[in-house]
């Protein structure tokens, strides 16, 4: 059985983008329904002292960025585990070179994402998420509106990824 890692990669990319879009749309739709609790209390505290947010509660910007990173690491962990199984399988010798290449690509993407996020945060932004793909980069900045430093952010992403401005999209996520 020959695995086509290019198709698997596209599937994972599309699934990740859909998850991100759903999270962004869901948070924007329910934002006006929330009434903040007292600032001293955890807004997720319930009668049984559980810290788990209710299903219908929208994530704050801070929660969104943290939740996205956790989900990204979970999905990447699954990808890496699957690729390592291919590499260690004696019956999948034909797919092993492609699996090794895909592991290198994932590692390179992770490095670019970490560099991009770190440098953007060092420029004074509270938070951001970088989603680097084969030929595009999506940057989600914690800001409710476009910012003056957009050209600086764009130049940073261009330098790290090697992509042109047309391949980079910046999205603003409200605070």
Structural class: mainly alpha
- The average pLDDT is 77
What form results from the Cα inertia axes?
elongated
According to DSSP, the number of beta strands is 3
Q: What fraction, in percent, of the residue positions are helical?
A: 40-55%
Based on CA atoms alone, the radius of gyration comes out at: 19 Å
**Main β-sheet, spatial strand arrangement:** 1-2-3
Distance between the termini: 48 Å
Largest sheet: 3 strands, mixed
- Percent range for β-strand residues: 5-15%
Pick out the low-confidence regions. Answer: 29-57
H and E order: HHHEEHE
Please work out how many helical segments DSSP would assign. 4
Topology overview:
Elements: H1 5-30, H2 61-88, H3 96-122, E1 128-132, E2 137-142, H4 150-161, E3 168-173
Parallel strand pairs: 2-3
Antiparallel strand pairs: 1-2
Describe the structure.
- The protein is built from four helices and three strands.
- It has helices at residues 5-30, 61-88, 96-122, 150-161, and strands at residues 128-132, 137-142, 168-173.
- The protein is elongated.
- The protein has 175 residues and is mainly α.
- Mean pLDDT is 77; it is low at 29-57.
- A three-stranded mixed sheet has the order 1-2-3, with helices on both faces.
- A hairpin with a 4-residue loop joins β1 and β2 (137-142).
């Amino acid at each position: 059985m020959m695995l086509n890692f290019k198709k698997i990669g596209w599937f994972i990319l599309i699934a990740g983008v859909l998850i991100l879009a759903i999270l962004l749309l869901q948070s924007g739709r329910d934002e006006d329904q929330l009434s903040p609790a007292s600032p001293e209390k955890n807004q997720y505290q319930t009668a049984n002292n559980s810290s788990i947010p209710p299903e219908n509660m929208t994530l704050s910007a801070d929660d969104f960025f943290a939740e996205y990173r956790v989900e990204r690491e979970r999905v990447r962990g699954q990808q890496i585990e699957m690729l390592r199984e291919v590499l260690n399988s004696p019956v999948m010798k034909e797919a092993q070179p492609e699996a090794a290449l895909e592991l290198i690509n994932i590692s390179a993407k992770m490095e670019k994402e970490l560099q991009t996020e770190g440098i953007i945060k060092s420029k004074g932004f509270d938070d951001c998420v970088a989603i680097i793909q084969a030929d595009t980069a999506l940057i989600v900045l914690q800001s409710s509106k476009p910012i003056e430093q957009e050209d600086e952010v764009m130049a940073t992403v261009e330098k790290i990824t090697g992509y042109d401005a047309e391949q980079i999209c910046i999205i603003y996520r409200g605070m």
